[in-house]
Design brief:
dopa decarboxylase, N-terminal domain; alpha/beta; Aspartate Aminotransferase, domain 1; 3 domains; 498 residues; Aspartate Aminotransferase, domain 2
């Protein structure tokens, strides 16, 4: 039998191709402003990506050529300066290169006495310091905010259920568990609650005030009513940057309530938690440091390449107990590779874990914490600039306060009904994206269709928002002249790309 390997037969040719890839990708990033943000994928590319399974090998150069011709020109667009859809980070060149280094080492960071574990420990210590968590807290890097919420809420359920849920299962409880958050909490909280056995009926969606912050008095009344009805209140989720509007709950008041009611306090700080890095914004998230668990993303406002989420847990022993199931094949040792004090596989769901800490470690060293704070503060200032321009315009309407980096608005016309305005703005969203000038996403605010701009982009300049509003104005006027849903207007870039 021939003993094959997957290494290249010509290392020098691979080296030359690798150098070309690095040069091409750095050029791609350097010139990103010159391209459309997003463009539809042509039929020939979709057809190419339906090829049958390769049986025989192909030349590296041919595979790379297909990537450059059919995949690279059709990204999501989030590296572009005028991408403000959903809440998606931008990445950095050095972060991309660090991914190559991590992939080359290719460790499984489930545990063991290896460098990658110590790097992750240091990154977690830095995160605790950045966000005001105690040094004795535990934590783990995960894929993103959804997994971070799942981990934090798992620990909350196990601690607050009132019985040994890990041994007996949720069905053994004499009282149904209840979890509380505002109507603005992220859908990942709902998913986590379903996975953890709370069920949809165990999730209490508390109304918000005019600033989209949870109403504390209604929350307190709901907890009291559940206790009267025989439920087991378990956990309160506070928003540090609600996904719809960027609203931040009164985290200090929530911490006080949880302390008085003996409830677990979990903060979903997917993007808003990192406002703490900017001295002028840190007061907005005051009280977050009192949480029992805190979920946040590093791939959003810190622009770490995907994936890089994190959860911190104040009670390390409780965290470890929730995930410490192991086997003889994973036994720890006092010496050798199987040694080491921290096994991250015992703090989360995954046993197989990538070296995602390296890109965080290298990026923090490259830029420093203060620089990230300045970028975050600038994004918030840009959001205020956009909101001010919208409020000063007769063509646009601000649909919610913009306390952080999210601006929700719509194009308006005095002769249009609410239903017609919804249809008009939904059409404008597609036209804007298809134009390639900018990408925003959408949501609904008080039932109205909103164009939603979430700014977590280190490449964005203030004048990019002038381009956004000018383009939407042109598209809106064209859509009014022609019925909604008319053939899209080709918007020339006219220097907007530069």
């Amino acid at each position: 039998m021939t003993e094959e390997t997957l290494d290249p037969t010509n290392w020098e040719a691979m080296r030359q191709l690798g150098h070309r890839m690095v040069d091409d990708m750095l050029d791609y990033l350097r010139t990103v402003r010159n391209r459309p943000v997003w463009q539809p994928i042509p039929p020939e590319t979709k057809q190419l990506l339906k090829q049958p399974l390769p049986i025989a090998p192909q030349a590296h150069e041919d595979v790379y050529r297909e990537f450059r011709e059919h995949i690279l020109p059709h990204p999501m667009g989030n590296i572009h300066p005028r991408f403000w859809g959903w809440v998606i980070g931008t990445g950095t060149p050095f972060g991309a290169l660090s991914e190559m280094l991590a992939a080359t080492m290719n460790p499984n960071v489930g545990g063991g006495d290896q460098g990658a574990v110590y790097v992750e420990q240091q990154v977690l210590d830095w995160c605790k310091e950045m966000l005001g968590f105690p040094s004795a807290a535990s934590g783990i890097l995960v894929s993103g905010g959804s997994m971070a919420n799942l981990v934090g809420l798992t620990v909350a359920r196990n601690k607050m259920a009132g019985f040994d849920v890990q041994t007996e299962g949720v069905a053994a409880g004499s009282r149904k568990l209840a979890l509380y958050g505002s109507v603005e909490m992220h859908s990942s909280i709902q998913k986590a609650a379903e996975i953890l056995g709370f069920g949809r009926e165990g999730v209490r969606e508390i109304p918000v005030d005019a600033n989209f912050r949870i109403q504390i008095d209604v929350l307190a009344a709901s907890i009291a009513e559940d206790r009267r009805r025989g439920y087991q209140p378990c956990c309160v989720v506070g928003n540090a940057g609600a996904v719809n509007t960027g609203a931040i709950d009164d985290l200090g008041a929530l911490a006080d309530l949880c302390e008085a009611e003996n409830l677990w306090f979990h903060v979903d700080g997917a993007f808003g938690a990192l406002a703490a890095l900017a001295p002028d914004l840190r007061p907005l998230v005051s009280g977050m440091e009192r949480a029992d668990s805190l979920a946040f993303d590093l791939h959003k406002w810190m622009c770490i390449p995907y994936e890089a989420g994190c959860v911190l847990v104040r009670h390390a022993a409780t965290h470890h107990r929730s995930f410490s199931a192991s086997g003889a094949y994973l036994s720890h040792a006092k010496r050798g590779l199987s040694a080491g004090d921290t096994w991250f596989s015992e703090y989360g769901v995954q046993l197989s874990r990538s070296f995602r800490a390296l890109k965080v470690w290298m990026s923090l060293k490259e830029h420093g914490c203060a620089r990230y704070g300045r970028i975050i503060s600038r994004n918030v200032q840009q959001a205020r600039y956009l909101a001010d321009r919208i409020e000063a315009s007769e063509r646009f309407e601000l649909l919610a306060p913009a306390p952080l980096n999210v601006v929700c608005f719509r194009f308006v016309h005095p002769d249009y009904s609410e239903a017609a305005l919804d249809e008009l703005n939904e059409n404008l969203l597609a036209l804007l994206q298809e134009s390639g000038v900018a990408v925003v996403s959408s949501t609904r605010i008080d039932g109205r269709f909103a164009l939603r701009t979430a700014i977590t982009n280190h490449r964005t300049r203030r004048d990019d928002f002038d381009v956004l509003l000018r383009t939407l104005d042109e598209l809106g006027q064209q859509s009014i002249v022609e019925p909604c849903g008319a053939t899209r207007m080709d918007v020339a870039l006219d220097g907007a790309a530069t």
